From TrEMBL:
Organism domain of life: Bacteria
Organism: Prochlorococcus marinus str. SB
Keywords attached to this entry: Membrane, Transmembrane, Transmembrane helix
Segments forming domain Cyclic nucleotide-binding: 126-180
Protein name per Swiss-Prot or TrEMBL: Cyclic nucleotide-binding domain-containing protein
Transmembrane segments: 20-45, 57-79
InterPro entries: cNMP-bd_dom, cNMP-bd_dom_sf, RmlC-like_jellyroll
Amino acid sequence: MINFVLTPDWVEAILGTIEGLSFICSSLIILRFIIVALSIANFFFCYWVGLGTAENVSILLLAILHFSLNIYMISLFYYSRSIRCVPIGWRDTYKNYFFLFLPFEFKNMLKFGDIIKHKNKKSLKLVSKNSEFENLAFVVDGEASITIENDVEVAKLKKGDWISEFSFITGDKTSANVISNNIFAISWSKATLENLKIKKPELFEKINSLIARNLCEKLIRSNKK
């Protein structure tokens, strides 16, 4: 019969082995949870053996560092995926129209964009007919009119609609004017979108998916007229 006595050396060896094996984990967030658990185990270890040696003091300090850093990163991970990270004034827009994005992705999209606010009797021209694609815009509130020759209105754009989406998709010149007396929108420049396509292709694809959904809604609206 083998008599096994759990000594501090054994505990230290076991914890070190678990820590080494934890790096096999492919999920970063799970790895952080494992490191937090190991840090707590090291707290108890130091309480058990005391801080009589420099080695044990070093173990405690590293445990505190690992615990603090990984708790912070775990909190940041979940906060960035919570709607709380989205500015309050944008939360309804996110929930109703940008739901394909993770909250932190939508927050980044807001940073990349430019805000358009206009409320005046004099119309603001958002898009000129037969011009090269320059900006893709989203109507957050208000409305805009699509006009052709002699300012004849052919369609209305309302809250939740995209502006210049056809030119964005096809690369062709714009086919009509877009004007508004009362609009709150956010727009992204051509350069920003091209940069997004290269560096964040997953966000670029999500924009395309949202536009496709909105185009279907516009088609349904036009068929009801």
